[in-house]
Specification:
Elements: H1 2-17, E1 26-29, E2 32-35, H2 41-49, H3 52-59, H4 64-75, H5 81-90, H6 93-105, E3 109-110
Antiparallel strand pairs: 1-2, 1-3
Length: 116
């Protein structure tokens, strides 16, 4: 019984250290998926090149300054995943929920497993 309790604590700490406690989320559309904080070709193509990120943040009802920061953190040249992680960490649960819903409203799936 004692081992079970220790194992649970160790597992929880490992998950938190691994980023599972963050506000990062998986985005899926048109056969491509990526974590919102990950710099990759799919994110650039789906969110930036298509103009979707502008529609997503506009539909999120977030303050304009936060919308601008999100667009810049995702699409501006030279940004790192740290920029978006910092923004997500500052957002309230309500703001994060609104952003995720706006992704859904723009034909994205959130947290869809890669092989599903």
């Amino acid at each position: 019984m004692r081992w079970s309790g220790s194992g649970i604590v160790i597992t929880v700490l490992a998950l938190i250290a691994g980023g599972c406690g963050s506000n990062n989320f998986l985005v899926y559309k048109d056969g491509s998926n990526f974590f919102i904080t990950r710099n990759c070709e799919a994110r650039q193509r789906l969110l930036c090149d298509s103009g979707d990120i502008g529609r997503i943040v506009a539909g999120s009802a977030l303050p304009q300054s936060l919308q601008d920061r999100i667009k810049e953190a995702i699409c501006a040249p030279g940004v790192t995943k740290t920029n978006m992680r910092e923004i997500l960490a500052e957002m309230t649960e309500e703001q994060l929920s609104s952003l995720k819903q706006s992704f859904r409203d723009n034909s994205y799936e959130i947290n869809k497993p890669i092989d599903a």
